[in-house]
Amino acid sequence: MAETTTSALSPEIQAAVNADTKTQLDDGVEKRVPLLLGDPSFNDVTEIVCRPVEWTVPRAWYIFFGCAAMLLGVLVLSTAYLFWEGTGIWGLNNPVSWGWAIVNFVFWVGIGHAGTLISAILFLLRQKWRTSINRFAEAMTIFAVMCALLFPTIHVGRVWLLYYVFPLPNQMAMWPNFRSPLLWDVFAVTIYGTVSIVFWYTGLIPDLATLRDRAKTRVRRIVYGIFSLGWRGSARHWQHYEKAYGMLAGLATPLVLSVHSVVSFDFAVAQLPGWHTTIFPPYFVAGAIYSGFGMVITLMVIARKLFGLERIVTLRHFDNMAKITLLTGSIVGYAYSMEFFIAWYSGNPYETFTFINRAFGPYAWAYWIMVTCNVIVPQIFWFKKARTHMGVLFVVSILVNVGMWFERFVIVASSLSRDFLPSSWDYFSPTIWDIAAFVGSFGLFFFMFSLFVRFLPMVSMAEVKTVLPKADPHHGHHDDDHGDDHHGDDHDHGDDDAKEEEE
Amino acid sequence: MAVIFPRWTNRIPFYLGAGGPVVLGGLIFAIWYWFSPQYTDVGYQPRQPIPFSHKLHAGNLGLDCRYCHNTVERAAHAAIPPTSTCMGCHEKLVKPNSIPLAPLRAAHAAGKPVKWVKVHMLPDYAYFNHSVHLAAGVGCTSCHGRIDQMPIVTQKQPLSMSWCLECHRNPKPHLRPLDQITNMAWDSKKAGYDPDKDPMRKRKVNPPTYCSGCHR
Q1: What pLDDT was estimated at residue A491?
Q2: Which residues pair with B138 in a beta bridge?
Q3: Quick check: A168 and B162 CB within 8 A?
Q4: Superfamily, domain A11-496
Q5: Residue A225 is nearest to which of B5, B37, B163, comparing CB atoms?
Q6: Is A7 a residue whose pLDDT tops 80?
Q7: Which of A160, A161, A171, A172 to mutate to test the interface with B (most CBs of B within 10 A)?
Q8: Residue B33 counted as domain residue
Q9: What's the confidence (pLDDT) of residue B1?
Q10: Range of B105's domain?
Q11: Cut 0.90: pTM above it
């Protein structure tokens, strides 16, 4: 059980995977290929998913974790110095008072959008392929929201006065300014973070129970036992679980759209040319989903290889994710061109200047990086070959997030640095502390992520099992799949099959 | 399946669910109540180097506040009198050999001030101007209480931001005729005073409630 090789596939399964790879892309509606490869049994799913949690941890994990911890150290140190010294250590200047902190905030919140989209919206739309990647994407969402919340928090300068943003009774007769979009942000992002965590945790409970029942050490049994909340997998448990999950999905769905709309209000409600635009909410939401899927692809390409998830996360999943990336990337490209159109069509000289300045002014380099990465590069996903090639997916998905970071940088820096009063114009350059905080936030993200892959199941076992052909009550009777809705009675009690077949 | 936890642990989620909001609410209440200036500052009564009695001087003898705090009408700061003000009476006429006044005589001889302990303290980031408040017709007692009845000066009001704002948002009940500012016994309820109908007042009192009014 404690093999440390990177591929979990035995030769015969590998052969089955290879055979399936030929057919798995041929998903004509009539004869859809199964979502999982090699026709795994319920127990196979449990074994594949539990392996990275239960194996002898490979050295690679320690190296990765160590690097992430060091970057996290950079974040802690730079933040400590920031608290000591104030925001003056950053490259902020008089017109550009928002700088990288807000760029990073929007960047991370955006990344956090894929998780809830996959888990909530695709759940309600009965997109079964989501089951292989939802746990992973939700974890990514939560860690991204943590990074996102960090930046406005440290950007306030006097961080010990942060409680001002909450409506708490106090002797100052001070109350948050409910007309400020910055306050809406506080509520939008904290609600989003809370709902994401509750949703994620609810989905984890049956799988935690599986891990509890498989645990070999006392500590694991107790810890997983506490967090699985006494789950025994009875029919009543499942009934409550399904209800709660459905309701949380319904609750999370509007949040997917609202959070980044509210984030865009930070800009759109201001009166600065280049910010004050009605297109911002939909454009930001599309961009957020775009960058979120980019991040899921980046991480999934690595994790799939590293933890031997090829049978569960198949090329079809990547194909679908790449299609969403292409769609949202094109929406973002449309928004860019529409901004220019409106700048011209409105006849507003300030608006016109702002956009000409964006494309040809001092930040033209950033603007064209953004256009290249966000609009041109993802067009390669029109080709199926590119959508299913791991190398292409990996590179493009990273470029997507490079582009999305630059999008936020262009919006923040180019508009602020050329405001209404030419005498106050200034150019923003980051200092070493800006860079340290940004790089360090990746440390926080990967630190949390490496803990996640080490101690929690990366794939929702219970849900993946429901999309196996065996889970279909009509399985074996006839071939058509009109029995889609009957999936309430096919959940297996995680530990049963594991125990039976382990011996 | 082996039993991992004893039966009573089933009730932990209930206790957490019921206790969590109570603890959180209690914490907010505790900070709101016990950390507020109303609780921490009101009643502050430091020991002074000389047992100077406002009750004797302002109450029994009827000295006007401005006899000692002479800049109060003209400056932001109400001056603490120099030793020479005290010695005007105490050098020859009144109790020139009093034992409690020995520190005063020593300070005066050395040309140094008496180190009075400040009672009413505002934070440095809050701007306050005595003269503006007097010109608007806010009496001494509104903030300092009945000084003329205090043998030792005590802080009577919280001097917190909400306390300031209470008056800034609705100053009318706290205003009095401009010649009654230092009258400790003046009672707004008995007087039935309406600042809007006072011919002595040249302009309407309009205190700031925006941030930079006080945080400049």
Answers
A1: 45
A2: B175
A3: no
A4: Formate dehydrogenase/DMSO reductase domain (1.20.1630.10)
A5: B5
A6: no
A7: A171
A8: no
A9: 56
A10: 82-115
A11: no
